[in-house]
């Protein structure tokens, strides 16, 4: 497993009058295979996740993946850390399923014939082998999320960060995508509102009002989060 370390990583953004704190300084070291990040909308949990592969750069402090500073060498980190968005439309940019996965492989394999072969194999792995030439717009919500994951995993990252990947899905597809994520060999950082899914992780971090409110075993973290919600302080 990779070692993901937050050393006082914080984020502020300018406002008309001053600045707003999105995330207070975070000190965390994540080494577990399955880490959930839970919290209310706007709590800062997605920001925490996006710091891991440089989609967001900290205003102060550092984030390191196996001692590589994400801000200083983002290209190196992104080769190791894949990111899956809530809405797969943010990732699916090519007309067909095969072309979309092939696009993910262009930086890793120059030969188009090899890229196509690998892309077909990835689609088959995710149950989309019969959809290679199907328009991405003709897929169901669950299939689009599977395709987005296929594109991320085609490059064989060491770490997968998934930002609320089941939020837009129905129950059946939520279970499908959740089971797939938790079965991966890769280390997983999972931002989720699905507490059943979070409970299946090894560790969970609760984010509230831009700070780490709890960090520990998943079951204990979920209990702590429910207490915050009940108290109206989440």
How would you describe this protein?
The longest helix has 14 residues. The model has no long low-confidence stretch (mean pLDDT 93). A six-stranded mixed beta sheet has the order 6-7-8-3-9-10, with helices on both faces. The radius of gyration is 18 Å and the shape is globular. The protein has eight helices and ten strands. It has a domain of 161 residues: Rossmann fold (3-Layer(aba) Sandwich). 34% of the residues lie in helices and 26% in strands. It has 234 residues and is of the alpha/beta class.
Share of helical residues: 25-40%
Radius of gyration: 18 Å
How much strand content do the residues show? Answer: 25-35%
What shape does the CA trace take? globular
Q: Which fold does the CATH topology of the domain at 4-91 and 159-231 refer to?
A: Rossmann fold
Give me the strand/helix succession: EEEHEEHEHHHEHEHEEH
Summary of the model, kept short:
The chain has 234 residues and is α/β, with parallel strands linked by helices. The protein contains eight helices and ten strands.
Task: Summarize the topology.
Layout: E1 4-14, E2 19-30, E3 34-38, H1 45-51, E4 60-65, E5 68-69, H2 74-80, E6 81-84, H3 97-104, H4 112-125, H5 141-153, E7 159-163, H6 171-182, E8 187-191, H7 195-199, E9 203-208, E10 211-216, H8 218-231
Helix pairs in contact: 3-4, 3-5, 4-5, 5-6
């Amino acid at each position: 497993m990779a070692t993901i370390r937050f050393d006082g990583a914080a984020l502020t953004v300018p406002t008309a009058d001053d600045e707003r704190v999105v995330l207070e300084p975070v000190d965390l070291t994540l080494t577990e295979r399955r880490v959930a990040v839970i919290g209310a909308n706007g709590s800062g949990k997605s920001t925490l996740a996006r710091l891991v592969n440089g989609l967001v750069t900290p205003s102060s402090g550092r984030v390191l993946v196996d001692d590589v500073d994400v801000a200083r060498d983002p290209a190196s980190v992104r080769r190791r850390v894949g990111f899956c968005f809530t809405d797969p439309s943010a990732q699916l940019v090519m007309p067909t399923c095969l072309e979309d996965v092939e696009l993910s492989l262009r930086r890793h394999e120059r030969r188009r014939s090899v890229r196509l072969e690998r892309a077909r194999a990835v689609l088959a792995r995710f149950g989309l082998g019969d959809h290679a030439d199907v328009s991405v717009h003709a897929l169901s919500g669950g299939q689009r999320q599977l395709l987005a994951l296929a594109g991320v995993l085609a490059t064989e990252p060491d770490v997968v960060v998934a930002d609320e990947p089941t939020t837009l899905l129905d129950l059946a597809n939520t279970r499908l995508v959740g089971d797939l994520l938790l079965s991966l060999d890769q280390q997983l950082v999972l931002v989720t509102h699905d507490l059943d899914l979070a409970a299946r992780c090894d560790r969970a971090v609760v984010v509230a009002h831009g700070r780490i409110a709890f960090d520990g075993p998943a079951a204990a973290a979920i209990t702590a989060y429910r207490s915050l919600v009940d108290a109206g302080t989440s």
